Each structure stands twice: as structure tokens, then as C-alpha cells.
TrEMBL record:
Marked site: Transition state stabilizer: 152
Residues of the site described as Important for catalytic activity: 223
Active site, UniProt feature: 107, 150, 253
E.C. numbers: 3.1.11.2
Residues the UniProt record annotates as site (Interaction with DNA substrate): 253
Annotated PROSITE patterns: AP_NUCLEASE_F1_1, AP_NUCLEASE_F1_4
Name the UniProt record assigns to this protein: Exodeoxyribonuclease III
Requisite cofactors: Mg(2+); Mn(2+)
Cofactor-binding details, from the entry: Probably binds two magnesium or manganese ions per subunit.
SUPFAM superfamilies assigned to the protein according to its UniProt record, in alphabetical order: DNase I-like
Amino acid sequence: MSFTLATWNINSVRLREPIVLKLLQEEAPDVLCLQECKSPVEKIPTEGFAELGYTHMVARGQKGYNGVAILSRLPIEDVGDKDFASLGHARHIAGRLENGVTIHNFYVPAGGDVPDREKNEKFGQKLDYLTEMRDWFHADKPQKSILVGDLNIAPREDDVWSHKQLLKVVSHTPVEVDQLAETQGAGGWVDITRQDIPEGPLYSWWSYRARDWDAADKGRRLDHVWATPDISNSGHSSRILRDARGWEKPSDHAPVFATFDL
């Protein structure tokens, strides 16, 4: 069985329903994982998705903030969620496909603007969230699993437009990068995107603040596709749909794709 998966921080699934439909029509991934849906589950606009064949959904939501959803053309079973760092936020959902693959969809806290947990509670929450993810993967080693989502960290020097200038900017600070590496290592997770595209600048997010985001190209790779070692060799065809950042009323994130032969 071969299936293509995409992950996308949509920054309001109701506001940006038209570009979700555009993606589903033009790219037709078998599974689309969305973050920052900003909607209660019952208000996610599922009718249009279902008309395109995406009749399955597992999701967690809340009004105006956070929220994660997995839309699928393939049958998928809701296998739960975790409230890491006890924030009470809708930031994780897991679904299992009929082939036994579990898909974890994460929206890690952004962490605010100041990279100091003593001065910025949100930064502390981000680090605590990652610590609890790490501890969970240590205690319950994932198998036959894919982890996707907006992890809000660009770990490599070539995952940001300027390593030197962003070392003290939340999303690329050494403490965050180290924390993400520990979390990844705890589950043995393989970065599928960089397995396929090992070298060179690669971004999935560009700030709304840039007058011309494309020309400035001050991006960061905040969105990730990981897989456990037992299935990582089946992952291929990774890409970031940069053009989606320029669609009408876009998210500030672009979708990240990978295909798995399982």
C-alpha cells in the first residue's frame, strides 16, 4: 500500500477552507494533517472535504485557538490524544490507518517572543511540552508510526534563512534545538524530509510581516514529517509546496508532503 501524506498549519480551517479545498483538488494527498485549526470539531467545514472523497476525520478542537485534525480518504481510527504539559490545549491527535500505521499530528507551542522561561511563561511551556513528548517516547517506544506537524522549531542551520541572526530568536535557539533533538532521539524518529533532501536551504514558513515574502525568502522549516526506524526506509518523494504560501488569503505555512510504501 502506498499513500501520500501532507501536513499543514492552516491558521484557521474555516477562514481558509477555500485553499484547503484547492490543495485537496490539485494535490490529492491521501491524508492531510492540519494544525492551528482554530475551530471546535463540530464547526470544521467537513462537507466540502467529503465531496472530494475525504470522508474520514479525527480531530481535537477549541474555539479560536490551537486545534488539530487529520482528514483522510482512507479509513482511519481515532486512537486518542495527549495533553502534554497539562496545558488543556488541543495540540495532539493520533489516528491509525487500516495498515496499522499510527499517525501523530502535533502542534507544539510557539513559545512567545523571549527565549527565557523566567521572563516568558510561554517559552517554558514549550520546553515542558517537548520534555513530556520525549519522556512519553522513552516510556512507550513508538513503532510503525509517523509524526507530523508544526513543531515550531527549525533545527538545522540550513532550516533557517540566517543561522547567525536567528540564534537568539525563538524557534532556532540552541536550547530548543537541543530539546527537539532529545525528543526525536527518544522515539528514534527519522526526519523523512531531510532523509530525502539532505542538503540545502529548506523552509516551510514565511512571516506575514514581510512585504514580499517570496523575494525576501526569510523562511524557517518549522513543519516536519518523521517516521519510526521500522518504516522510515519506505518514505520518499518529500517536498514542500512553496507555491501555497502565495495562494489567496494564505497561511504563513506551506504544506509538507511525503509518500510511504507500506
